[in-house]
Structure formats: structure tokens, C-alpha cells
Amino acid sequence: MRTRATSISLNGNFRLVMAGLEVEVRASRARAIVAILATAHDHKKSRDALKAMIWPRSDEKQASGSMRTALSSLRHDLGENADLVGANRTHIWLNGPVELLRPDDGGAFFEDAPTDIGADFEDWLQTERNRSDRQLPIIAPLECGPTRRICIGILPIHERLDEPMAALLATQVLDFVIESLRAHEIFQLFDFRDLETDHFSGGVPGISDPEMYLRLSLTKVRSMAQLSVSVLSGRQILWAHATSADQSGPFLFSHDDVAAFANQTVDAILKAAFRKYEGAAFRGKGPQSMIGVVHQLYGMSREGQYSVRRYLEGHPELEGSALANACYALSVANTLGEGEPTLADLEEARRHATRALELDMQNPLVLAFCGHVFGFALREFAVGAEATKLARRQAPAMPQAWDFSAMNAIYRGALPDAMRFSRKAAQLGQYSPYRELFRSSLAITATLTGEHETAVQVSRSVLMRLPEFLAVMRHAAASYSALGQLSEAESMVEQVRARDHRFSPEAVQDPKYPLPSADSRDVIGRTFRMLGHS
Questions:
Q1: 3-state secondary structure of 190
Q2: CA-to-CA distance for 166 and 253, rounded, in angstroms?
Q3: Alpha helices (H) in 82-189, listed in sequence order
Q4: Record's InterPro entries (predicted)?
Q5: Number of Cα atoms under 13 Å in the Cβ half of residue 109
Q6: What is the structure's pLDDT at 141?
Q7: DSSP symbols for 260-307
Q8: Would you say the C-alpha torsion 408, 414, 416, 417 has a positive or negative sign?
Q9: Which of 275, 294, 331, 391 could form a disulfide with 401 if both were Cys (CB 3.0 to 4.6 A apart)?
Q10: Which of 194, 228, 191, 196 is nearest to 213 (CA)?
Q11: For residues 343 and 486, what is the distance between their CA atoms, to the nearest angstrom?
């Protein structure tokens, strides 16, 4: 048992002192491992977490080999004090006592940290530097605060199949789920599917990092199959769902079935995370994390959009987050039409959307959000069309990508594409808690294509859940008037005017007024004429 404290200084350059003597740790990634463990709760991290942070571009075999090499180098440098580092099959830790010295004189935290490792390591480094700048108490990284990530373990698939090719279905579901969860930037995923042995056959082990586990099962016997999924916290089942197929055709589940099933799983995880980290006080306090930011953003209320901006402005450590920048830009776009938009507002939207795309052009959620900002708020239709197209390609099961693609098609006057995209968004998001948001483009498109009964039906449903959605309200007024329901149309116009005093026959013809397209100006202009407004 170690009795004398090891001193690890991250005040400026890395410095390790043992038994009164400084120890030189030569390998940069070995120093990174020690620094991460020194700041972690109980000075302990899982092997998978460390590999994900330090070797994110390597496959499992390469990352494991690189970690063994780094640990061997570290122990060689430690010499007779090699027992500082403890390890087993799942975890690595520092044997105490350990004294951690942080900057207390304005110095930089871990100034000689290795560069260009990956986003997770940079997130950890930025979080620790911000914590040192604010001189907050030492707590485990990524455990609290706005940049914390919710850890989820992807367990091995349970398969009982009479046809090996059917395993592709389960793989597709998990790929869709992982793609969507990673896009939200609030989850840290541990993939246990590649383990040579199923270490979980006897139950979920006591791994400290993941807070939730995702388990998928697929059973196929002849023409019958069942696909089931569960979200676990230890042995507690937080959510479960199953779908069955019984047919003799070549495909048991269609691509849309698989996508919808995956989206239900993602939504369940988002809801579980929201309940845990935002809680019942959300309405009174506003967002407390990025998951609350996304929730507020989707609510479409004016105050909700402002609360998103207040939260992000109050957390400068999120300036390096692509999703945070995209959320800020989208919140500006969502409040256009709530009064006179200022040039400063639009420049802020442009700055944040541009920054988001610079940070991560591979995130489909960022692409979808920024595509809408460039198309609707900044009227740069080609830029918006390209971004939303990339979002669809990268995440074909994500309803946000199709919803914002539909709106961009409206801006460009491509109404057949808009209808196709909007129906796809509605289908993919049919089980989502944000279902009505993903049907909003369908409501607007139906008005513009003359399907007014559909437009009224969908608009009513959307506005029951999102009563402050001005774009839907403006177009619903047009559909009511086209159906001869003039009192309903007049009522809708007055509801819009209660929040947008500029809404008038003259204003809607102004190219700077925030309407999606020339088609929208025409149908809403006709509505004013039918109602006798001049």
C-alpha cells in the first residue's frame, strides 16, 4: 500500500513528483492518461473511455495495442514506483494518495498537452481549463455542468436466427441509433459489441462509466421475426419496445420500419436523459444542460428561444461545440417574425451557423439546423439546400434532416420536393415526443399545394402542442379562408397579430418579411383580400 503522496502538477506543463523526486514521463499520450486519471473521480476511468478519448481514430484492436504500449512506457518511466498505475480488464486507475496541483495564479492548465488527438480529449481539456480559470472545486470531468456527456453502453446484440443475413436488421437499427445520439453531442457512447466474449451474459457488470445501457434483440424463425430493444440503468429497465413481422416476402422489415424503430429508441433515451438532468423544475428555471437547450429549441415558443440564447451566452465553454453554435443560430431564426428583425440578429445567426459548420461538417443535426438558418433567416437558398442535402445523406433516418429539407424546397419553389420531404419527416417522426414539430412542414406545404383540408387538419394538431408556431398559424389562416371558413381564418389572423403586430397585407409583400416563399406571399395575400383587409 502506498503511504506517501504522489504530486501531479497540471499548473502549466505536466510535472510528476514521487518520493520527492521528479519523474520524467516521456510519451505525450502517457502524460495524457495520467492527467485524465488525476482529474477523474476516484482517479479511475474505464479502458474504453480512455481509448475513446486518446485514440478516437483507431479501431478496437489498434487502440488496445496503443494503450498497452503507452502503459508499458509509463511503467518503465516510473521504475520502482510503477505500482502508481493499477489496471484490470476493464479499468485503469492511480493508486493513492495523489495530490493534484491546478493553476492558482492565472497559469494555464496542462499547457504541454498533446494536440490533435480528437474531439473528446479537447472537450475534456477545455472543461478542465475552464474549471481552473473559475477556480471551482475539483470534480470528475464530464460529470457536471453544461459540457457533461451522458454515458451510454451499447451491449452485444442478442440474436436467435435461422438466417444469418437477418443480423443486418439489428446492425442497421443500432447504426441509426448511434448516428443520431452522436449528433446530439450530449452522449458519450461505449461500444461493447466488438468484445470477443460476451461478458454480459451473466448480467450487466459494475462498470462505473455508463449511466444507461442499450440492448437490442432479434429473433427470426422462418417468416416470423421480432425486434426488441431496452434501455437499462443497471438491472432497471427504463424503457422497452418490440415490433414483430410475419410475412413470406423477401424483407421482414422495410427500411422505413427500421428507421422508425431506431427513432423511437433515440427519443426514449432523450426523454430519460431529460427527466434525469433537467427535472420537474425545467419550466421555471429554463435549460440546465444541452439536452434542455434542444428541448426548448423544439418547443418554438418565443421565451423558449430566448432562454436558449441566455443559457449559451452564460456558458462560454460551449463556444467550441458545433451543436451549441447551431442551436444559437436556429434560435435566432425561430424568432424572426416576432417583431422587427435587426441586422445584428441576422449577423449573430450567420456567425454562429458559420462557426458550427467550421467545427463539424459531419454532424447531420448541425447541418440540418444551419441549413434552415441559411435558407430561411439569411435567404441563401443554395447554401441551405446543400447543407440539408448533406444532412439527409448522412442521417437518412433523422426526421430533422427531412423537415428542414422540406422548408428549403419551399423557399426555392420546389413544391413537389417539399411535399415528398415533409411526408418523409412526418413518417420518421411519427412516434417522437416532437412529432408535431416534424409535421409542421407538412402543414405549410399542404397549404401551398392547395391541399387545404389536410393543411387544416395537420395545423390543428401542430398548434395544440406548439401554440406559438407563427409560420403554421399564418398558413393555416390561408387554408381556412380557401375552405370558406372565414371566421376561423379571421381568428387565426388575430392570433398572429397578437404576437406579430406587423402582420398585414402590406407587410407580407415586403421581401424582407419572414415568409418562406413567393407562394406564401400569394396565398396569405389572398387571405387578407378575402377577409376584407386593405
A1: strand
A2: 10
A3: 119-134, 167-183
A4: Sig_transdc_resp-reg_C-effctor, TPR-like_helical_dom_sf, WH-like_DNA-bd_sf
A5: 22
A6: 33
A7: HHHHHHHHHHHHHHHHHHT-TTHHHH--SSHHHHHHHHHH--HHHHHH
A8: negative
A9: 391
A10: 191
A11: 36
317 near 130, Cβ under 8 Å?
yes
CA-nearest of 307, 228, 234, 300 to 268 is: 228
3-class DSSP state for residue 180? helix
Q: Which residues contact 231 (CB under 8 A, 6 or more apart)?
A: 212, 213, 214, 237, 238, 239, 240, 265, 268, 269, 272
Cell of 353: 451557423
Name the helix (H) or strand (E) containing 308. helix 302-313
- Pairing label, strands 224-233, 212-221: antiparallel
d(CA 219, CA 215): 14
How many angstroms separate the CA atoms of 425 and 299, rounded?
A: 17
Helix residue spans in 375-513 (DSSP H) = 381-394, 399-411, 415-428, 435-448, 452-465, 470-482, 486-499, 505-508
- SS3 category, 154: strand
Enumerate the β-bridge partners of residue 46. Answer: 91
pLDDT tens readout for residues 320-337: 899 999 999 999 998 887
Distance between CA atoms of residues 7 and 38, nearest Å: 10
Spell out the domains of the chain, with CATH numbers in brackets.
6-134 (1.10.10.10), 150-275 (3.40.50.11830), 278-396 (1.25.40), 422-534 (1.25.40.10)
Residues β-bridged to residue 212: 152
User: What is the separation of C-alpha 480 from the centre of its chain, rounded to a whole number of angstroms?
Assistant: 36
Q: Quick one: angle between helices 452-465 and 470-482, nearest 10? A: 150
Per-residue exposure over 442-457, b if at least 16 CB sit within 10 Å of its own CB, e if not: bbbbbbbbebbebbbe
Chain centre distance of CA 177 = 11
Q: What CA–CA distance (Å, rounded) separates 377 from 345?
A: 10
pLDDT tens-digit readout, 56-113? 888 888 888 899 999 999 999 998 888 899 988 888 989 878 888 887 655 678 888 8
Q: pLDDT under 70 in the chain at which residues?
A: 1-5, 104-107, 130-148, 164-166, 194-209, 246-252, 280-284, 338-341, 534
> Cα(356)–Cα(314) distance, rounded to whole angstroms?
18
Integer Cα distance of 419 and 442 in angstroms: 7
- Position 340 scores a pLDDT of 55
Dihedral sign, Cα of residue 310, residue 313, residue 315, residue 317: positive
Judge contact between 415 and 409, C-beta under 8 A: yes
- CB under 8 Å to 1, separation ≥6 — which residues? none
Q: What is the distance between the alpha carbons of residues 419 and 422, in angstroms, rounded to a whole number? A: 5
Can you give the pLDDT at residue 138?
32
d(CA 486, CA 476): 11
**Residue pair 102/96 in contact by the 8 Å Cβ criterion:** no
